[in-house]
Amino acid sequence: MNIHDLAKHLNISIGTVSRALNGRADVSEETRKRVLEAAKRLGYSPNQSGRSLRRGSTGMVGFMVIANRSRAVRGEAFFMTVFDGVQSVLAKENLDLVIYYCGDGQSPETYVQRIVERGLVDGLIVSQTTRVDHRIDYLIQQNLPFIAFGRSQSGGDHSWIDLDFEGVAEQSIDLLTRLGHRRIAVATPAGDVNYGFVYTEACRAALKRRGLELDDDLVIREAISEAGGYRVGERLLAMKQRPTGVVAVENSLAIGLYSKLKDAGVAPGRDISVVGFDETPTFGLFLQPPLTRFRLELVDLGRWLGTHMVELIEAKRAGKTIPFAQKVWPLELVVGASTMPVSPAADGAPEVVSAEAGAKRRVSRTARTSSLLAGSTARD
Amino acid sequence: MNIHDLAKHLNISIGTVSRALNGRADVSEETRKRVLEAAKRLGYSPNQSGRSLRRGSTGMVGFMVIANRSRAVRGEAFFMTVFDGVQSVLAKENLDLVIYYCGDGQSPETYVQRIVERGLVDGLIVSQTTRVDHRIDYLIQQNLPFIAFGRSQSGGDHSWIDLDFEGVAEQSIDLLTRLGHRRIAVATPAGDVNYGFVYTEACRAALKRRGLELDDDLVIREAISEAGGYRVGERLLAMKQRPTGVVAVENSLAIGLYSKLKDAGVAPGRDISVVGFDETPTFGLFLQPPLTRFRLELVDLGRWLGTHMVELIEAKRAGKTIPFAQKVWPLELVVGASTMPVSPAADGAPEVVSAEAGAKRRVSRTARTSSLLAGSTARD
DNA sequence: CGGAATTTCGTAAACGTTTACGAGATCAGG
DNA sequence: CCTGATCTCGTAAACGTTTACGAAATTCCG
Q1: Tell me, in Å, how far CA of A19 is from C1' of C21?
Q2: Nearest nucleotide (C1') to alpha carbon of B30
Q3: pLDDT of residue B358
Q4: By three-state DSSP, how is residue A220 classified?
Q5: Which range has the worst mean pLDDT, A115-124, A161-170, A243-252, B297-306?
Q6: Distance between CA atoms of A183 and B124, rounded to whole angstroms?
Q7: Cα(first)–Cα(last) distance of chain B, in Å?
């Protein structure tokens, strides 16, 4: 079933069929109706290969996620929620979102290269950026509309969006130091994941602003998983001089950490203060005591990606040049009961402290709310 | 940069270039080397639109996931792990895996229709099947190689793979009834997700085999999320005649359930026995007491999908017809401490029972191990 | 050395679209 | 009725490949 069949069936030329389907002006209203009706009835829609060959564009936007860094980087519904936001915007522009999944065996660089060279997409979103990320250099050079989800030290000017790790660090350290904590550990992903370093350095700077140092042995790098969080707990508890507070930059780290602490009879909040992440909405629910954590609106973030991607693609189509966008995405601090005033005997000896103090719920935001997008969309 | 440019640059014809790149025999070893070298140096790879237009096949396999059922049905780590397996097999056959994400606003039926009509893929995997699933009828009719991930009542003969919910039900009920439980609740997804019904009916049958009935009010259908699991707990505890055991067919359900139970001061295992799922490897780690649960090898499952998809595609290419495959995937029971002998006063009054009894670790399997695939691949 | 067999390559058609161009039909206005 | 404008449509080229076909060059073998 192709355009010739349809044309023959209607006794008109393929040119007219094409024009009718593509909504061009020079076709009578009557024939257009006939064509549309017949197309629907016979289940015809234009072959994508033929169309994009002729048009020179595919109408597809790629979103690349990486396997070995994926279960790593964030768990569960994180990306799917972002997809939702991207999709909702692209659909309005007749663009399709396709997800390219770079498997364990494949190199992200050659994977992105294949996608581009073979002309699979009109635009690409690359996630899970590393500090040096050759994908970015390559994409700049190729002049393909793209957005990096995550910052990187690579490449020149380009569009990116990233979470406000500096804001998170500042607020975390602010909260803990106000509660009297001075020896604070930082749990961060192992491997060359850019935000791990961003976050660590931001914590260091926040501490320095308060006259404190971040000892190197307090930077704990572990695989991003519940198991990794568990090991963070082990390393924490094994320290001669145990920290009184710890900040963890990812969901599963905090969960695994909780697990180890409880196994060891160390109560989060009472014995050691924990600040965590809650990038997917329903996750922190079950942790007891409730985790002090940062949450964010991932659907809106996805919408931002989609909106800017459309801008980039349309600009290129029109031959215009528009400024790249760089966006730092705000997170919201939700104070739970896992952060408490430091115990007087701050050497880590378990000592009971009022379990209620400091648990009054507070909320603040790491950055000004995005002006581009509508208000938050609470999920589930 | 297209094949003409490359040919001109090498002073040979485009036919030769194409043959060289596609590994055909009728090209001298020397020119092949020259072509490959030049292609790599100039960053040329064949345009996919042109290639698939001519070939009539795209070399892509689609994997469709659905938004509103996705966060619902299973988390992201679930699918990503499956992708890994599929990908690893497809890559060997020079096939690409692309993930189509059907967003919240889109209908899965029209989405799959578009994918097929526009000729985007050589084969398609559809997941999250419903009881009546028009996608399946449509795909059968279209004669496109496809596999359903999940059973359905729709459609005639076709290939599918599904988890062994019957085995899970049988083993769960067996375990609980051996421990003396007679009043057992079933927590299952709300909505028309096929496996919810399969599982419920399998539980009902397993109970019947032991002379027990499954009361309708003991079938608790809730959204598949931690919040849903929490509501399961609420409904459970609100019952006049509280069940002594509960089986939950999904990860997050068990997690939310635990949360509610603990909030209410009801100890899993001691006060109520819980059997859960652990479809993603690292999840159950942190639950205390350790959850009695079913686990499975998702990468291997993905490999099975990939392998069979390759068979289907190659058969179609060769014009042959091969039998469809139907596969029930085994799960492994891991007995934790959340299942205990029923308390003598089985009316739900919290009563202390030996916390160690019944906690000896056992492992068994719901079905014979797949003969097709190699042994398990433990994942962090 | 001559013919056949083999190796290597160029030519051109085909895949299914979109669109520039131009032609016929219709219409308005004088 | 004539001219020009407008509306509607058909024709054909082009997008970048792959591949059937045949031709030229080389090798083989008696």
Answers
A1: 15
A2: C8
A3: 38
A4: strand
A5: A243-252
A6: 54
A7: 43
Alpha-carbon distance B165 to B271, whole Å?
Answer: 26
> Which residue ranges have CB below 7 A from strand D?
A 11-16, 19, 26-31, 50, 53-54, 56; B 2-4, 14-15, 18-19, 21-22, 24, 26, 44, 46-47, 49-51, 53-55
Q: CA nearest B98 in A: which residue?
A: A100
Q: Which domains does chain A possess?
A: 3-46 (1.10.260.40), 60-161+299-329 (3.40.50.2300), 165-295+331-365 (3.40.50.2300)
Yes or no: say if A284 and A357 are a contact pair by the CB < 8 Å rule: no
Shortest distance between the Cα of B84 and any Cα of chain A, in A, equals: 6
Give the pLDDT score at A226: 79
Which residue from A45, A88, A380 is facing B225, i.e. has the nearest CB?
A: A380
Cβ of B23 < 7 Å from strand C?
no
Strands of chain B (E only): list them: 60-66, 96-102, 123-127, 146-149, 159-163, 184-189, 219-222, 245-248, 273-277, 292-295, 326-329, 332-334, 363-365
Q: How many CB atoms lie within 10 A of CB B142?
A: 14
Confidence of residue B6 (pLDDT cuts 50, 70, 90): very high
Q: Which one has a higher pLDDT value, B179 or B78?
A: B179
pLDDT at B352: 39
User: What are the helix (H) ranges across B43-75?
Assistant: 48-55, 67-73
CA distance B104 to B125: 19
How far apart CA B186 and CA B203 sit, in angstroms, is 8
Task: Report the C-alpha gap between A84 and A301 in whole angstroms.
Answer: 10
Nucleotides on chain D within 7 angstroms of protein Cβ: 7-12, 14-20, 22
In sequence order, what are the residues at sequence separation of 6 or more whose Cβ sits closer than 8 angstroms to the Cβ of residue B4? B14
- Confirm whether any atom of chain C, the nucleic acid strand, is less than 7 Å from CB of A36: no
pLDDT at B278 exceeding the cut of 60 = yes
